[in-house]
């Protein structure tokens, strides 16, 4: 599912060469040969908008999840490797960041500083890292007492080398699963912002289509169906991939 999404996103200029913001037909026209997904209330082709929205939504999900993972790995790894007061301080800060409602915090940030796409990505990343930090810290603490880590310390390996060379490969499955979940969550967050009218008006996303469709869904079901279906299948694919990447022992416990 995600491979198909990536292919569609990369092939958007060939699959739908028209500008998604172009008024290409009659408003609220039903699906037809000329407009496979129909048109919205402004006469824009929904098929073209959905295809181009795949690239925007996927970019938001992947970039924000990668940034959040990097922050989480640094915070969680540093807390575990240093222990003591540093660990206590960083974990209290992580718990405070995790206790704040994520979506409402993103809404506040975007409302104050504007809805530019890169600001949306940064806001999502800066609110999504605590879960990764806690997971990685737990994995590091579980690994630091093992013999090969003690041997690496005896050979003079630095803390950074131990984390990158010895600990991170053992936790790659759990971290990769967390990244997959965060990609889906980031796509949903961006869609929610665009639905509320807080997204980037210059970029076509599935949330933008859904936001424009909520007033006409009773008379033009296709305007909401196709972007909603694309969003649902994408998030479902991210969650299924995350479940597949989890180590078997963790999956059985879930």
Brief characterization of the structure:
The protein has 254 residues and is mainly α. The protein has a single domain, classed as MetI-like fold (Orthogonal Bundle), CATH 1.10.3720. It is 72% helix and 0% strand.
Q: Can you give a write-up of this model?
A:
Helix 3 (46-82) packs parallel to helix 6, helix 7 runs antiparallel to helix 8 (159-167) and helix 10 packs antiparallel against helix 11 (222-245). The relative contact order is 0.15. The longest helix has 37 residues, at 46-82. By secondary structure, the protein is mostly helical. The chain is elongated and about 75 Å long. It has a single domain (2-6, 57-249), classed as MetI-like (MetI-like fold, Orthogonal Bundle), CATH 1.10.3720. It has twelve helices and no strands.
Write the layout of secondary structure elements.
Layout (H helix, E strand, L loop, with lengths): L1 H9 L1 H4 L30 H37 L1 H16 L2 H12 L3 H27 L3 H8 L4 H9 L4 H24 L10 H8 L8 H24 L2 H6 L1
Helix pairs in contact: 1-3, 3-4, 3-6, 3-9, 3-11, 4-6, 5-6, 6-9, 7-8, 9-10, 9-11, 10-11
